[in-house]
């Protein structure tokens, strides 16, 4: 299956009603087909892993073709330069998060990119850093607690960023770290308490929301299990 064929299939699955509703969720409908995620993943399963095809699909600029690109790319062939190029193209939280969930966490450069991207002024590049933290917490089962504690300084530093898609990702990363195990739960709550004292409404929201979840009795029971 080539790029042209895949784009034709995407157009055939297009849903005008979904496209109209995208804006309400902060997704630009400019180059999107409004396809549901289950249908998109079903199509991706029909396409063999192919690095070259993934690069071509990304260049089309369509939201759905870029998500498929993240699903069919071959992690062992992805370079740090490609990660930087793709992240610069992010124009929605959806593509950003899907790339982190489907592909970026599998790349050896993932951890170092977090520290670089977290310093970016671009809203979606910075979001990618914290979305990637949240995803790695779930998928990197072998990582020591210290690996995630190293992210605490950047979580605290960026907790004052008022931009919606940044603050939500910072919050997400903090909550995910705190749900990995009971030791990280305690450390994440401690960090959240520090952030809560900062002179920033955004920081206070991030911290309060995280503490509420991480100190929830049911959440703690699940972590201990």
Key structural traits:
225 residues, 2 domains, Serine Threonine Protein Phosphatase 5, Tetratricopeptide repeat, 15 helices, mainly alpha, single chain
Report what the structure shows.
It is a single chain. By secondary structure, the chain is mostly helical. The chain folds into 2 domains: 1-77, no CATH class; 109-225, Serine Threonine Protein Phosphatase 5, Tetratricopeptide repeat, CATH 1.25.40. It is 68% helix and 0% strand. It is built from 15 helices and no strands. It has helices spanning 3-12, 16-22, 37-45, 51-59, 63-72, 80-89, 93-102, 110-117, 123-139, 145-149, 152-157, 164-178, 182-196, 201-214, 217-224. α4 (51-59) packs antiparallel against α5, α5 (63-72) packs parallel to α7 (93-102) and α13 packs antiparallel against α14 (201-214). The longest helix has 17 residues, at 123-139. It is globular, with a radius of gyration of 18 Å. The model has no long low-confidence stretch (mean pLDDT 94).
